[in-house]
Specification:
Elements (H helix, E strand, L loop, with lengths): L4 E8 L1 H4 L7 H12 L4 E8 L3 H14 L4 E5 L10 H8 L2 E2 L1 H12 L12 E4 L2 E6 L4 H8 E3 L5 E4 L5 H7 L27
Parallel strand pairs: 1-2, 1-3, 3-6
Antiparallel strand pairs: 4-5, 5-6, 7-8
Helix pairs in contact: 3-4
The structure holds adenosine-5'-triphosphate and the ligand Nc1nc2c(c(=O)[nH]1)N[C@H]1C(S)=C(S)[C@@H](COP(=O)(O)O)O[C@H]1N2.
Adenosine-5'-triphosphate binds next to helix 1.
Organism: Tepidiphilus thermophilus
Catalytic activity: molybdopterin + ATP + H(+) = adenylyl-molybdopterin + diphosphate
Family: Belongs to the MoaB/Mog family.
């Protein structure tokens, strides 16, 4: 029996959390992960305002109490006064993984010049990897899956390719992906035979 991965999905948006507009962040995250993951998983979802203490409490609850191996936030990464998701994430993290922030901006720049405005980070807290994504719902697929050419060939890999091995390294469940959506990369010595 494969262990079920618990994945935290956190939409950080003042207006969606107040009902000004419908949240499209959580559905976009859940839909993309449902396509990408072939190993068992379930989501713990939270829709919260851009309030640093609320973001920190939510991340701590998902990591420490609910045992999420992975948490994605969406929203609040820009330069506006109320954008504080990266500060909250760094405050609860024990180690930063700067490569994720760098690469997520690089991928974003393939789609929009304003990707440079995102201050998104990724951190480890205990056995949890926490990754910030921008608030624009389309940025979720762009960042996680990467860029394809007109024939569907990947021309800039998305960051999800590195996430299953990152989770192996922090002692989490073995995540398997559908290579048609995103091919997970692991060193040969870390690949387990598929149990079907
Ligand atoms: N959760 C969401 N659901 C739907 N659309 C969103 C969501 N978050 C952001 N967007 C869209 O992406 C745009 C940029 O996101 P950004 O996080 O900068 O929003 P914002 O202007 O800070 O407002 P808010 O925090 O109230 O969503 C928004 O103007 C909105 O059109
Ligand atoms: N891949 C990708 N990255 C992106 C975008 C996008 O559309 N696609 N939008 C950018 C924009 S317009 C902004 S302002 C910043 C910060 O967005 P946030 O405050 O909603 O997190 O993310 C950027 N990163």
């Amino acid at each position: 029996m494969k262990a079920e991965a618990v994945i935290g999905l956190v939409s950080v948006s003042d207006r969606a959390s107040q009902g000004v507009y419908e949240d499209r962040g959580l559905p976009a995250l859940e839909a993309w992960l449902s396509r990408a993951l072939v190993s068992p998983w379930r989501a713990e979802k939270r829709l919260i305002p851009d309030e640093r203490p609320v973001i920190e409490r939510t991340l701590i609850e998902l990591a420490d109490e609910l045992g999420c191996c992975l948490v994605f936030t969406t929203g609040g990464t820009g330069p506006a006064p109320r954008d504080v998701t990266p500060e909250a994430t760094l405050a609860v993290g024990e180690k930063e993984l700067p490569g994720f922030g760098e690469e997520m901006r690089r991928i974003g720049l393939r789609f929009v010049p304003t990707a440079i405005l995102s201050r998104q980070v990724a951190v480890i807290r205990g056995r949890t990897l926490i990754v910030n994504l921008p608030g624009q719902p389309k940025s979720i697929q762009e960042t996680l899956e990467g860029l394809r050419d007109a024939d569907g060939k990947v021309i800039h890999a998305g960051i999800f390719a590195a996430i299953p091995y990152a989770i192996d390294l922090i002692g989490g469940p073995y995540l398997e992906t559908d290579p048609a959506v995103v091919a997970a990369f692991r060193p040969k010595s870390a690949v387990k035979p598929s149990q079907g």
